[in-house]
Design a protein that fits this description.
By secondary structure, the chain is α/β, with parallel strands linked by helices. Helix content is 30%, strand content 28%. It has 4 helices and 5 strands, in the order E-H-E-H-E-H-E-H-E. The radius of gyration is 13 Å and the shape is globular.
């Protein structure tokens, strides 16, 4: 199962996200692509198969409303896209959800609290 998790924010946000990453890895055998602050990479090491900085320029189409071409997609997108994408955000962003549907079969917004 290929899973993409988008979790921008501070270190505390990552720490409360680690249990779900651990569960997905252990219970579901998921291959996780984590999109988060570049500062989180050392902390998230071992919890995700791929780590993508939320500052990575290849993310721009997702935020600009342009579809991604999976045939020539950025390296961080798994072949064929993701089965699930989880957007852990304080406020729901319909445009971002729609954009993630270009690369994922199912997209879920999970409200996070600061």
């Amino acid at each position: 199962m290929e899973v993409c998790i988008y979790r921008p924010g501070a270190l505390g946000d990552l720490l409360v996200t680690l249990p779900i990453l651990q569960w997905l890895l252990e219970a579901k055998g998921a291959r996780i692509t984590l999109i988060a602050s570049p500062d989180w990479e050392p902390v998230a090491k071992g919890m995700a198969h791929r780590f993508v900085s939320c500052e990575d320029r290849t993310l721009l189409p997702l935020f600009s409303g342009h579809p991604l071409d999976l045939a020539s997609s950025p390296q961080w997108i798994c072949e064929g896209g993701f089965q699930f994408a989880f957007l852990l955000l304080r406020n729901q962003d319909q445009a971002l959800e729609d954009a993630f549907r270009w690369i994922s079969s199912e997209v879920f917004w999970i409200q996070s609290r600061p």
